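Reader question, answered in our methods column.
A reader sent in the components of a multi-part assembly and asked whether the whole thing could be modeled at once rather than chain by chain. We filled in our standard form and ran it. Here is what they sent:
COMPLEX SIZE: two components
ENTRIES:
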Amino acid sequence: MFFIKELTHTIMLHPSYFGPRMQQYLESKLYSDVEGTCSGQFGFIIAVVSISDIGKGMVLSGNGQAEFVTRYRAIVFKPFKGEVVDGVVHNVTRMGIFAEVGPLNCFVSQQLLHPDLKFDPSSNPPSYTSQDQVIENNTKIRIKIIGTRVDATEIFAIGTIKEDHLGVIE
Amino acid sequence: MTSRSFPSRHKAQQEEEDAAALKLGPEFNNAGCLLISEVKYLLENRDKDAPDTVVYNKTLEYVKTFAKFNTTDSASAVREILRREPELTQFETAQIANLCPADAEEAKSIIPSLVKIEDDRLQALLDEIQAMRKFQT
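And here is the structure of the entire assembly that came back:
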């Protein structure tokens, strides 16, 4: 699910940047620091929409750097257990299929596919086929997320399509 | 005695997040949800240059593929339709508009928390959204 969320980010600024163009520098630093990052707490931070407050700036005693606590609004993407999402298949293996849901990688184990879908290693590219369905690269599928794993810089999800109204979509 | 502390810790883990029961965790329970179509609009109409990150590019591709409503007018019209049902939460509104289920039974299967709404009323909303999709310019 995509959210719009108010977040904060702390920027440490070296004294050599104190001057007339400090504001622009802080803004571009915020954009480059947070956009495209991922944390377990907030999910993927996709893009900053607006900066609500760039912060007053506080010179730290001891090293002369200034600390700015900026508040900004951003588009974030966070997957939840039990959520149903659409995705695009980008890899098919004997173990199961890998789908991309925006920035998120989602794995659907072969055991969580419909029993009629059989792996066809001879096809090129590899695919899962049943009488009326084919799942191969770039097929759009509807997945239910059944679990997520959070790394330092990435989130992985596992999903199922073995329920009603899930699976290949047109 | 030490074994006693395990069940409670396990329980706390389990209660954390579950979209089927609308539990999104402390950070997101009251956060504003965005429709895929709205994300597409926001990303395409940025006044700044697009950042060249993997996350950004993948998301842009994804929202272009799955946006159900191609104008801001139709996206806000859908929100208007769904606002008439006061029991819907932000998350459910966004899920209905993103997945566009065709009938009430399908909607309740993919968004389990919708059980609180009667089939007839839900069906009327879904029909209206389907019609919107068909006739959007």
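What stands out: Residues 2-77 of chain A form a domain with the Dna Ligase; domain 1 fold (CATH 3.30.1490.120). Chain A has one helix and 14 strands.
Send us your own complexes using the same form.
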